[in-house]
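Our preliminary data section would be incomplete without showing what the modeling component actually yields. Below, a chain of 215 amino acids is followed by its predicted structure, encoded as tokens that our downstream tools consume directly.
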Amino acid sequence: MKRLLLIISLVAIGYAADAQRFLGALAFGGNLTQVDGDEIYGFKKPGFNTGVATFLPIHEKFFISLEVAFSQKGSYQKYAPQADTTMPYYNLRLNYVEVPLLFHFEDKHFAMIGTGLSFNRLVGVKEIEYGRQTATNVNNGVYSTNDINWILDVRLRIYKSLRLNFRYAYSLSKIRTRTFSNIAGDEWTRDQYNNIITLRLVYTFNEKINIEEME
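Predicted structure:
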């Protein structure tokens, strides 16, 4: 499934590169993420987010984009002061290959806003609890290998074809269900979801910019 999805996406991008109506783009930046439902709070886990995309103009101000990206997500909690074990060291890294499909609106060639879905495939997992690496991996079923995110995407032109890209994404289905317990013997179960803030630079190729239209 992963290979088929990548092949379809790369073929689409390759086809777009030969079509004058299509625009190509490169994106590079990072994520700040958390996993909702893991009893740890805050966007404390940084990670890379980089990809290639193609844009299809469907109207003067409307575009559809298809992207293939590598995106790192996860969760992090350091030891509390004085190594208080009630707040243990935790570090989760989830690596995904994702394929966002978005619909965009651009105003005066300056601000672009878009929304859509991102289809994610888990390709790597590393989890540390209480300072020790767990046996969790891609194949043992602890984390779902597929994740679909809703995306809100905002892009502001910095200079010519270079834009600053802010993106917010959230899992539409759970990535894991986990049971927690405390020293009193109480247990509770929570579903977990990826929660992602992304900041990137995006450079668009073959873009024709009319300066007068931007004024």
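The domain at 2-214 is CATH 2.40.160.20 (Porin). The longest strand covers residues 111-129. Preliminary results of this kind motivate Aim 1 of the renewal.
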